[in-house]
Amino acid sequence: MVKQLTLYSAKVCPWAHRTELALKESGLPYKRYEIDLTAKPEWYAPKVNPASKVPAIAYGGPDVDPAEPSPDSVKLAESYVLLEFIADLSASTKPLLPSDPVARAKARFFVETVISKWGSVWYGIQNRGDDPSGILPAIEVLQNLLPAEGYAVGDWSIADAAVTPFIARAFVSLKNDAGAYAEGSGKKLYETLQSDPKYARLRQYYADVSGRDSFKETFFEDYLAERYIQRAATLRAEKKAKV
Amino acid sequence: MVKQLTLYSAKVCPWAHRTELALKESGLPYKRYEIDLTAKPEWYAPKVNPASKVPAIAYGGPDVDPAEPSPDSVKLAESYVLLEFIADLSASTKPLLPSDPVARAKARFFVETVISKWGSVWYGIQNRGDDPSGILPAIEVLQNLLPAEGYAVGDWSIADAAVTPFIARAFVSLKNDAGAYAEGSGKKLYETLQSDPKYARLRQYYADVSGRDSFKETFFEDYLAERYIQRAATLRAEKKAKV
């Protein structure tokens, strides 16, 4: 029997986006509830996720209004834990991980390795204004781990769900030159990534993952671009004021 | 058919210890090869793990001398990836994770949460000389996530494998007062952890996990104590020289 599943998410958050991609691909029915991260509902931490972060899932229990979570549902958190959870739930109906242990290990290694290179480096670029080209080593790691064509480990899997939101958000930032970094440096890197033969594998991979319905239905480029542009203006003004 | 499995490990390393616990519990046949982390064999990075860390596994291919790894085996790395790999390999013969998706998510959440609180804090205590009592919040997180009795999620699982090596090493350090921290502060905290009713759950959990054969066969307390004591003397001397 399929139990009720409610996802607490936020359009802006790459960690939450991971779980939306996996849920869409799984075909499992679920409700989605947007959490405004700048004004979290006061019931969210005590009733859903004590760490007060998205994503979180309420699973099982009665079918209630997501804004009034039931104590009878199980609450789960941490985006990669949720990806594995979704893959476990849909294992027999729509596999989101290969069945071969070696391929599963490669999927998990892909996530661990790409995100450990990408995460904190990109944070520094976007929020502290480090040079955007600092992301290139992470892109090279990604390209080296990808097979010659297709997804991370054969069919689309939670490994792709885990990584795609970060590439997508980096592209929105760079394309719009919308980060704390020096003006012009984002667009310049974006053009390189879009044209240099060296990054052909990245482009093809991104075309593959972003061409899927799961992505189109869960990614809000204009919404993100607007927020990034506003935030970049604030960060750059703060930087100038400090000089 | 069971394929050959070779584990590259190091007695001193908690990340490697995780995989030894899981392999022992799995009942899978394997070879173990000790890597001297202070003098790694020159073939290790190019032929086994480009990141040059332990643990790593060579799986499949011909049954060769571990010091002459075959290009025909698959090489896998990252300790938590390897724990899931071992659990996948032994799923039908000796389950090392529960089968229920919610219980599996709780196991993974346990690891993620405890290690993210424990890892870097303990590193600061042991190597930079931060006050050992800084580990208490991580211990409280661990105690709060544990059920009233038994292991992290029912039967012993890879969640216990992931966490046990860190508790074991902290105890060796504190008991011997063997870290970069102020002399006496380790022993003092150790006595508190061994006697204060507040830490009864930690003590019982550690008695349970360390009482298993898998632990007794893979943990080398005297060896670790000796190394920690030597290293602490060096770190404390360096600290004094700086003052």
From TrEMBL, chains A, B:
It comes from the Eukaryota. It comes from Ephemerocybe angulata. Gene3D superfamilies: 1.20.1050.10, Glutaredoxin. It holds the Pfam family GST_N_2. One of its GO terms (cellular component) is cytoplasm. Residues 3-94 form the GST N-terminal domain. InterPro entries: Glutathione-S-Trfase_C_sf, Glutathione_S-Trfase, Glutathione_S-Trfase_N, GST_Omega/HSP26, Thioredoxin-like_sf. PROSITE patterns: GST_NTER. The lineage of its organism: Eukaryota, Fungi, Dikarya, Basidiomycota, Agaricomycotina. This is GST N-terminal domain-containing protein.
